[in-house]
Design a protein that fits this description.
Elements lengths: L8 H13 L3 H14 L4 H8 L3 H14 L18 H13 L2 H4 L11 H12 L7 H9 L16 H20 L3 E12 L25 E9 L4 E7 L4 H14 L4 E6 L3 H4 L1 H10 L2 E5 L10 H13 L7 H13 L15
Parallel strand pairs: 1-4, 4-5
Antiparallel strand pairs: 1-2, 2-3
Helix pairs in contact: 1-2, 2-3, 2-4, 10-12, 13-14
């Protein structure tokens, strides 16, 4: 595994702004060279585009990582006049660190989080300064020790009122099932596992960065997962796809795990759950009840956390050459691990 420090999101964005906004060709070429070597572009291609040779490219990258944006600015043109004084910059940084946008001005009353656009408007309104490039805003955020984050996703079709009402109704049903020793509560979901390598952040000594081998072919398998909320036991099944026919085949398999018990399935409203063939299999069993999660609310399902744990322990940062071998390993991990995730306050740990 080759290790090389990678650009952070902030550094990548900073360089992109140089490329888009700078009128100095040398500054643009330096920024391009650093981004391209960061993305493992062939050296010959970088040289053809920028004119820099191997040694120059790596020196540019090293200097930038060590000293920052100042190393790619063309100092031959002279230092530009500072638009803000040191005291003004300190005031802005203090505002970012201690206040939310709606607290600095009533015109931002609907904004709880800072963005580059809001910061630019605040600076122009307060100090009469308008930066041409967002790079200056990024540097102020960096000075305030802020980092860039994407907000968590909320699905467009999600209805919070529906979710709230579902929680109240479902909790009553779950309480009855929880108190009945002959009823097994199973939260269910499916996942898609492919040969496309997934990555997650890992901790390494500063200055080192790992490279993960990835596959050029695309193969996939599906996994049906049932989490026993009372016991924390997982039942995972490998399949080639997920549809109502396969769901109908899986139901007798999960029944084998609990002969004679009443099963309560808590799952989403996917077509392969509500489809006629799957529903016929439930009727044939004769001792299965179902609760459907509200629309677009996967966060309510503990099985989602099971998938996340499995990916983290088994397939993240791994080169998947044999999809069946990888899926079998994934399923084995799930079926041999206890998960005490909670469903509306009910869990094996309670």
């Amino acid at each position: 595994m080759e290790r090389r420090q990678k650009l952070t999101n902030e550094q990548w964005t900073e360089l992109q702004h140089v490329i888009k906004s700078s009128k100095n060709a040398d500054e643009v070429r330096r920024a391009q060279a650093i981004i391209l070597i960061n993305d493992h572009a062939p050296l010959s291609a970088i040289t053809a585009l920028t004119g820099y040779q191997k040694r120059q490219i790596y020196t540019l990258r090293s200097n930038y990582l060590e000293k920052g944006i100042d190393t790619i600015i063309d100092h031959r043109k002279g230092q530009p006049k500072e638009l803000l004084t040191k005291a003004q910059r300190a005031q802005i940084v203090a505002a970012i660190q201690t206040k939310k946008p709606f607290e600095v001005d009533t015109s931002y009353q609907h904004y709880e989080y800072w963005t580059t656009g809001l910061l630019g408007a605040y600076i122009q309104q307060s100090y009469g300064v308008a930066y041409k490039s967002k790079t200056s805003h990024y540097l102020l955020f960096k000075q305030a020790k802020f980092t860039y984050h994407k907000p968590g996703r909320v699905y467009e079709r999600r209805d919070e009122q529906e979710v709230k009402e579902w929680r109240i109704k479902a909790k009553k049903q779950l309480q009855q099932a929880w108190d009945d020793s002959d009823t097994v509560i199973l939260t269910e979901d499916e996942m898609h596992l492919s040969t496309q390598t997934t990555v997650q952040k890992i901790w390494l000594p500063q200055g080192e960065y790992p490279k993960i081998e990835v596959s050029g072919k695309r193969e996939a398998r599906s996994i049906y997962g049932f989490l026993n909320i009372k016991e924390g036991k997982e039942h995972a099944f490998k399949t080639k796809w997920q549809n109502m026919y396969i769901t109908a085949e899986i139901i007798p398999e999960i029944r084998k795990c609990y002969p004679g018990k009443k099963l309560l399935f808590v799952w989403d409203q996917a077509g392969w759950h509500k489809g006629s063939v799957a529903q016929d299999a439930i009727k044939r069993d004769g001792n299965i009840e179902t609760i459907y999660f509200p629309t677009a609310a996967p966060d309510e399902n503990p099985q989602e956390h099971v998938w996340k744990s499995g990916r983290s322990h088994v397939v993240h940062n791994e080169f998947i050459q044999d999809i069946d071998e990888a899926t079998d390993k994934f399923v084995m991990f799930l079926n041999n691990t206890r998960f005490t995730y909670s469903l509306l306050g009910f869990s094996a740990a309670s």
